[in-house]
Amino acid sequence: MRRLNRKQTLKVVRELDAFAKVPEDYQEASAGGGTVALLTFSLIAVLVVSEVRFFLKSRMKYQYDVDADLNSKLQINADLTVAMHCARK
């Protein structure tokens, strides 16, 4: 692959357009389209604000209780791995 110099690289980057623009002849502004855009923007803004408020409002609540049952037994499981030499034949 051929290396490009700085000017050629900048030219390639400027010409790169992943989302090509629609010609103005095909565009039509309407009140309905503006209304949909405003409603969508408002909905997104409300959702962002509510998520930020939920994040800032939520707190961790730690609650400890004393176990009053003296006769219960605590079950403890222990997984052990023992390093032993294997006998080879």
UniProtKB/TrEMBL annotation:
Statement: the UniProt record of this protein carries the keyword Protease: no
Keyword Hydrolase among UniProt keywords: no
GO BP terms: endoplasmic reticulum to Golgi vesicle-mediated transport; retrograde vesicle-mediated transport, Golgi to endoplasmic reticulum
Transmembrane segments: 36-56
Chain ranges of the Endoplasmic reticulum vesicle transporter N-terminal domain: 13-87
One Pfam family matching this protein: ERGIC_N
Key words of the record: Membrane, Transmembrane, Transmembrane helix
GO cellular component: COPII-coated ER to Golgi transport vesicle; endoplasmic reticulum; membrane
Matching PANTHER family: ENDOPLASMIC RETICULUM-GOLGI INTERMEDIATE COMPARTMENT PROTEIN, ENDOPLASMIC RETICULUM-GOLGI INTERMEDIATE COMPARTMENT PROTEIN 2
Protein's name according to its UniProt entry: Putative endoplasmic reticulum-Golgi intermediate compartment protein 2
Species name: Stichopus japonicus (Sea cucumber)
Lineage: Eukaryota, Metazoa, Echinodermata, Eleutherozoa, Echinozoa
